[in-house]
Each structure stands twice: as structure tokens, then as C-alpha cells.
Design a protein that fits this description.
Blueprint (H helix, E strand, L loop, with lengths): L2 H18 L9 E8 L9 E4 L4 E6 L2 E6 L4 E7 L4 E7 L4 E6 L4 E6 L5 E6 L4 E7 L4 E6 L4 E6 L4 E7 L4 E6 L3 E6 L4 E6 L9 E2 L9 E4 L4 E5 L4 E6 L4 E7 L8 E3 L4 E6 L4 E6 L5 E7 L8 E2 L6 E5 L2 E2 L9 E2 L5 E7 L1
Antiparallel strand pairs: 1-30, 2-3, 3-4, 4-5, 6-7, 7-8, 8-9, 10-11, 11-12, 12-13, 14-15, 15-16, 16-17, 18-19, 19-20, 20-21, 22-23, 23-24, 24-25, 26-27, 27-30, 28-29
Length: 338
């Protein structure tokens, strides 16, 4: 074969392979590409997406904002919550479960009408939550109580309680094993979801105040976001700390994109979104500029887009205080790979 033809075929094959690979596998060119204005003032917490309806839900004080990411519009159809932390859509049920911290309940709402359907009593200070499809249960983390409530959202009742330690934050699982950050003790608590029995804790040496947490099934590793500008990489199967990565300030969430083999940690303290490669050893790829205050996020696994709630921030009212959101400026940033 002539050398010129051979080189041309090699170049074509290389370009074809590159175009077939997901953009994020090559690092991706992620950036803020949109902004959705949203109602409500004051603080906010976790974000979650219903991929089927393309609605992003964000707890925002005593309301939950629902943002339509196709139309780039937002409204607040759910209200009356006593300090909402997590809003979790229940698949195929037109249900939204919201943890209500000040009255120790989980509120269940009809997503089509916005009507509150039930209040399920749980433990002390329900905070983070997620839906376990295999168990068909909402897993609720009671931060101050140090317990986990397993809630049947259809029967509208608690079906099990797991006792751990106070100071709990975000939770995830690797199938049967529940993994929960303990912010106060800087460790990870574990439990068997089937039996409800607590397992051994893992001290996260070098990680202070872990909050956000996510699990990657392909590598068997969890990523925990720490308050001291670190992310802890945890080998869940062998119950050991693999290492620490440098991240930004003020993280509160970790999201894992299993399709594109990357993870993201929003760091609201310095307004960055840290992108982490999952394969070949977890490593930081880059820090994407976002906005101060953008510390939680929701990932659309279909499109790879990341949605980060925040607001324009005013300087602290007192020395050493926290910046305060300016009224009328709440919004959701849209980060995509261009």
C-alpha cells in the first residue's frame, strides 16, 4: 500500500475513533452555557433531576423550585416545608419526597398538582435522601439523630430504621451496603441495607468535615467531598482510603457520570466545578469556573448536563459571617460539554 494512502487511512481511523468517544472521555470542554432564573429568596440545598420529565428540583427554604430544563423556566409549586433539604423524585409515581428538617418529616407531593399528600414522621433533622430502586424505598439520613429511615413512599410509612452515629451527611450505596458521610467525626459509616445492621466505620484521614458523597460502580470507589479542600477516594469493596485529591472550597455534593466516566464536585466557596476522571485512577482534570455559592448540583445522565443552584451574593453582614443571597437573584446554572 502506498505510504500516502496508508497515512490517510490511519488519520481517518484516528479521527473516527475520536469522534465516536464521548467528549468527556477526552476530558470534555465543560463550561457554563446557560442560566435559569428561579423564584424564591434565602438559602437553598440539594438539587435532583427527574430525567424522564426533565425537571430539576431544588429545595429553597420552605419551597421546592421545579425548573424545566427544556423550556428554561422555573416555578415553585411545592410549599409549606419546614426547612427543606432534599427533594427526591420517585420514578413512575408522580411523587416528590422532600425532607423537612424542623418538623422531622418527609413530605410527599403530587408532582402534577403540587398538592401535599402526606407527612411521614422520621428521625431527628432529616437532611440528605435518595431513592433506592431495588428496595423501592426512600433512604432518609437523619443528621442529628444519627439514624437512617427507610420510607415506603407508596404506603407512606417508615418500614425500617438503621442506627448509626449523629453528624450524618450525604449517603450512597454499592448495592447492599449503605455508605454515609459523618461530617462531625470525619469518617464514613456503613450499614447493610437488607438487614439494617450497622457495619464498620472508616476514618477519612486527611479529610475534614465530609459532606457530598457518590459511588462509581465500575471502579467500586466512592468519592467524598471534604471541607478542607480535599476529596477522599474510598475503595468500598476493601474498606480502605485510597487517597486524597485537591479540590476547591465549600463543596457540598458529588455527582458521578457513569456514562462519560467523570465525576464533578461543585465548590461554592470559590465558584468552581471540579472535574474528576474516574478510570485509570481518580484524578482531577480541571476546575471549571461557575459562581460563588454553587455548592450543590444535579446531573442529567442522558445529556451529561449539570445543574447548579446559586444566587448573587452580598458581603457578610458581620465580620466572619457568610455571604448572603441577594433578593430576586436565585438561579440555576447550566454546565454542558461544548
Amino acid at each position: 500500500m502506498p505510504r500516502q494512502l496508508s497515512n490517510s487511512l490511519l488519520l481517518a481511523a484516528t479521527l473516527l475513533a475520536a469522534s465516536a468517544a464521548p467528549a468527556a472521555d477526552r476530558g470534555g470542554n465543560y463550561a457554563v452555557t446557560g442560566r435559569i432564573a428561579a423564584p424564591g429568596d434565602g438559602g437553598w440545598d440539594y438539587a435532583a433531576i427527574d430525567s424522564a420529565t426533565k425537571q430539576v428540583y431544588v429545595t429553597h427554604g420552605d419551597i421546592v423550585v421545579a425548573a424545566d430544563v427544556v423550556r428554561n423556566t422555573a416555578k415553585a409549586p411545592f410549599s409549606g416545608i419546614a426547612k427543606g433539604h432534599a427533594a427526591v423524585p420517585i420514578p413512575n409515581r408522580h411523587l416528590l419526597a422532600v425532607t423537612s428538617a424542623r418538623d422531622n418529616t418527609v413530605r410527599l407531593f403530587d408532582t402534577e398538582t403540587g398538592k401535599e399528600l402526606a407527612r411521614v414522621p422520621v428521625g431527628n433533622d432529616p437532611d440528605a435522601a435518595y431513592y433506592d430502586a431495588s428496595l423501592q424505598r426512600l433512604v432518609v439520613v437523619n443528621a442529628k439523630g444519627g439514624t437512617i429511615s427507610l420510607v415506603d413512599p407508596v404506603a407512606r410509612k417508615v418500614t425500617g430504621t438503621i442506627t448509626l452515629k449523629p453528624g450524618l451527611e450525604a449517603a450512597t450505596h454499592d448495592g447492599n451496603t449503605l455508605i454515609v458521610n459523618n461530617e462531625d467525626l470525619s469518617e464514613v459509616e456503613t450499614a447493610d441495607l437488607r438487614t439494617g445492621k450497622a457495619g464498620p466505620a472508616l476514618v477519612l484521614t486527611g479529610c475534614e468535615g465530609p459532606t457530598g458523597l457518590a459511588f462509581d460502580p465500575a471502579t467500586g470507589q466512592a468519592i467524598s467531598a471534604c471541607a478542607n479542600h480535599k476529596a477522599a477516594i474510598i475503595d468500598v469493596r476493601h474498606h480502605r482510603l485510597v487517597g486524597l485529591l485537591d479540590i476547591g472550597a465549600g463543596p457540598d455534593t458529588v455527582v458521578v457520570d457513569t456514562r462519560r466516566r467523570v465525576a464533578f464536585i461543585p465548590c461554592g466557596g470559590d465558584g468552581t466545578l471540579v472535574q474528576i476522571a474516574l478510570d485509570g485512577g481518580a484524578r482531577v482534570i480541571r476546575s471549571i469556573p461557575t459562581e460563588p455559592g454553587a455548592r450543590t448540583a444535579a446531573l442529567d445522565s442522558d445529556t451529561g448536563a449539570i445543574y447548579l443552584p446559586t444566587a448573587d451574593l452580598a458581603p457578610p453582614a458581620t465580620p466572619g459571617g457568610k455571604p448572603q443571597p441577594k433578593p430576586g437573584t436565585f438561579h440555576i446554572l447550566v454546565v454542558t460539554s461544548r
